[in-house]
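hey can u run this one w/ tryptophanyl-5'AMP bound, need the structure tokens asap thx
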Amino acid sequence: MSETTNPGFTPRIFSGIQPSGGLTLGNYLGALKRFAALQGEQSETIYCVVDMHAITVWQDPEALRMRTREAAAAFMASGVDPAQSVLFNQSQVTAHAELAWLFNTVARVGWMYRMTQFKDKAGKNSENASLGLLAYPALMAADILAYQATAVPVGEDQKQHLELTRDIATKFNHDYGVNHFPITEPLIEGAATRVMSLRDGSKKMSKSDPSDASRINLTDNADAIAQKIRKARTDADPLPGTVEGLRDRPEARNLINIFAALADESPDQVLSRFEGQGFGAFKPALAEVAVAKLSPITAKMAEFMDDPAEIDRILGTGAERAAAIATPILDRTKDIMGLLRSRP
Ligand code: TYM
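ok here u go:
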């Protein structure tokens, strides 16, 4: 993995989540669940609530502060230990914004226009999108490369941004004749790297979908979870014995993948148990495993949220630790680029 791709770089894992709305089962299975699992392996783990990404679209200031805390609570409730990992919010470490500016001079405008997330979020009226929304991937590259991170666990939807991060690192190293930034490996693994909407199997489950029934929120109670699963769109056929049988059944495939990821099984293992059965039997079993896995997380999140001052303290300490890693890397970047540094 990264050790062989990036010899000479300390193995380091970085990932981030936007506090732009309540977090969903997609965020949990695609990202949060794996963040905790990666702790304590050989790599250092650095996890960030990316509040400066969130403001690329309008956020109510007080709501943003609360959601930043809530995202931090979700990290910890999912098992991220702020003693083992560095946990902080992006805006408290100025190296991210500074390095993003430097990368704005490396990245090309055409690269940004090609990003599908920009096209989706800017919509038809892209002239009216914030400049930050267009430049967003340069900030994301800065998040990662400010720590010279060698690996980034994310869901499938972030793959294109990670390719752009690799392009920026490659161009920087080439333009300045250095080996300063690693070529970061995406870690897109598990049965649920792309959790789909419960109402439409062709759309990603997203916190910004207008229909609350399309997603399971990490703050949903057991009744809401069971009800959303009961109402999830499916088809009338019985379940097949292997995943090949799900090829043209996106809704069914999504529910099987969710079950597999929650139960730490493979989709084929799940199907071998439910082969020949209909959704009348499968959905209650899925609701049971979802409630069993998510309820403790929801409860822990609420506990953390009872003490916002403690969350703020944890994020502040994390930001100091993060800055201690990022500042020397940023300084070296400035030196490479010829920016004069003479302050004591
Ligand atoms: P964001 O905040 O949209 O999502 C956070 C993480 O959750 C994953 N995810 C999903 N995985 C599976 N199925 C889904 N339906 C689903 N929805 C979301 C995302 O892939 C992501 O891993 N640009 C990033 C945040 C970011 C970042 C970074 C990530 C900023 N800087 C540096 C990694 C490294 C974003 O908008 O994620």
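The chain has a mean pLDDT of 96. anyway lmk if its weird
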